[in-house]
């Protein structure tokens, strides 16, 4: 928000952005009004000696639509609230447990705008 310096959060639901609220600038003063990167992320945390939970829907990306969890119609909003497509060539996949959870191709197909599948079942050890 150019008037307050707070971050403005939107949800692009059914291809129509809806305002979610403001993220106070004071929570991350080191950003100084600029987001150096945007993350589309999924997390699964658990104690070291327990079995891990499912990530996303509990299905692997190869199971695709109606099974695997996904991020779809991904957009990045600038300071004027204008939506932009992510740039596929600079998107970097990062996984710290590829033995447990998977990430589909980034991004997948123009037909679905920008979309990727992710996730995995419960039961990861360690």
Automatic annotation (TrEMBL):
This is Neprosin PEP catalytic domain-containing protein. InterPro entries: Glutamic_endopeptidase (IPR053168), Neprosin (IPR004314). Pfam families: Neprosin (PF03080). It comes from Aegilops tauschii subsp. strangulata. Residues 1-125 form the Neprosin PEP catalytic domain.
